[in-house]
């Protein structure tokens, strides 16, 4: 069995090092700021060689801006001038953050995804799940409290029963004493005759 040499797949050509010296990353872009408006803003500082305004390609935010873009100028001086002028500039409701592209944060730092999106749930579904969990926990706590209350009541019933049945002699004794007290009352004549007749 002969082994054929594997042919390496062509890689995307990496940009030349001098391109990084002219390329800027622009972040913290307000979602209302359109690609056209941002392009007009960055053109004020020099000739644009390349402009990348990024959008979400999939997921619930598909078609919406990612909140950052890249711009490459013709010269390093133009890029430096744009960096100095645009960094911290208020554009609509947010202050732009402009850095050299090779020092820019990765996408994971640029776009903060909600935890629920990572788990494959929308924020509404996550909220509904959280509410359901809280309801289940409340029901479980109520059931536990009811169980404890029932155990306390059962314990009270058992302790009350023990007091009355622990000493049956004293209970019988108290009944005999009450009967004697009733008999200590003088007999009426009819009872006396019956009692005497029984003795005979």
UniProtKB/TrEMBL annotation:
SUPFAM superfamilies: RNA-binding domain, RBD (SSF54928). Residues 163-200 are annotated as: Disordered. Residues 22-103 form the RRM domain. Keywords: RNA-binding. Residues 163-177 have a biased composition (Polar residues). Pfam families: RRM_1 (PF00076). InterPro entries: Nucleotide-bd_a/b_plait_sf, RBD_domain_sf, RBM18_RRM, RRM_dom. It comes from the Eukaryota. One of its GO terms (molecular function) is RNA binding. PANTHER family: HETEROGENEOUS NUCLEAR RIBONUCLEOPROTEIN. This is Probable RNA-binding protein 18. The gene is rbm18.
């Amino acid at each position: 069995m002969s082994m054929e040499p594997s042919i390496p797949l062509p890689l995307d050509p990496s940009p030349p090092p001098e391109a990084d010296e002219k390329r800027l990353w622009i972040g913290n872009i307000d979602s209302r700021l359109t690609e056209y408006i941002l392009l007009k803003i960055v053109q004020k500082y020099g000739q644009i060689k390349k402009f990348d305004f990024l959008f979400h390609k999939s997921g619930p935010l598909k078609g919406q801006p990612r909140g950052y873009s890249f711009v490459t100028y013709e010269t390093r001086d133009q890029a430096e001038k744009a960096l100095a002028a645009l960094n911290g500039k208020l554009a609509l409701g947010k202050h732009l953050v402009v850095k050299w592209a090779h020092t820019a944060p990765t996408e994971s730092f640029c776009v903060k995804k909600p935890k629920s999106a990572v788990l494959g749930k929308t924020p509404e579904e996550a909220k509904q799940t959280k509410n359901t969990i809280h309801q289940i926990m409340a029901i479980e706590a109520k059931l536990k409290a009811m169980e404890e209350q029932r155990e306390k009541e059962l314990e009270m019933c058992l302790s009350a029963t023990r007091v009355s049945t622990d000493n049956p002699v004293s209970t019988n004794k108290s009944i005999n004493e009450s009967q004697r007290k009733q008999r200590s009352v003088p007999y009426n004549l009819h009872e006396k005759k019956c009692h005497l007749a029984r003795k005979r």
